[in-house]
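Amino Acid Chain and Its Fold in Token Form
===========================================
What this section holds: a protein sequence and its matching fold, both as plain text.
Structure line: whole-number tokens from a learned vocabulary of local backbone shapes, matched to residues.
Purpose: to set a sequence beside its fold so the mapping can be learned.
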Amino acid sequence: MKTVLSLFFYILYQQSLCVADERRCHPQGTPLYGSKWCNFTLSSDELGSKCYFSCNEGYYLTKTQSNECIEIHLGMIRMFDKQIGACLPRPPSLKPGENGPFQLRVKMGSSQWGVINGKLIDSYLHKSTFFVKLPGLNKKNNTVSIYTGGKHKDFVVAMEDELVVDATSTTDKVEEKFSNQASFIFHQDLFYPGFASFESSQESGKFITTSKHGDGVIVLTEPQTVMEKQRASFQWAPA
């Protein structure tokens, strides 16, 4: 009997610990590149406490700007009513003509666009800066053309499903084909907030995407899975 009572009170004690833990609004972190300010009487886990979030200059906040510690399940559990967001670099406001220079960072990992042997790659070592022309060489709305700086403008060009970097051509007939190959439909925040995506102007649904083989090659493909959409999303970074 004594053993049964001891077990009974032990279970009650353990349940009280769980309830006490569930009745807390656990402290929240501060967004990277941002700040947090909370309004409370004794502690940030008390009922009714409110927290406010903001981002540093050049960044913008996803999700909510504030949240509050509330009760749910008849007061048994306390939790903040909204999830905190992240501070992402504010994308540039592209103007007609030349924009940049920029570096384009890949969402998966921290590699960036680069050029080696005339091919567009994503790399940790061979990082390049790019300029963006609005509209693209084909002069159609919502398109851009991306090219490297320097004395000569070498454009990112879609050659079938491969991305190369090449100079503009001279003859009218070749120039028209080149202009279409070097123009991409620009999407901001298409797959992920704060990230840009570039769709082929010739093959609908195909986007500039880092290779799934991890060999650094950037290709044109149709992103369908979550991982493929991450590989087709790029972040602007002023050079």
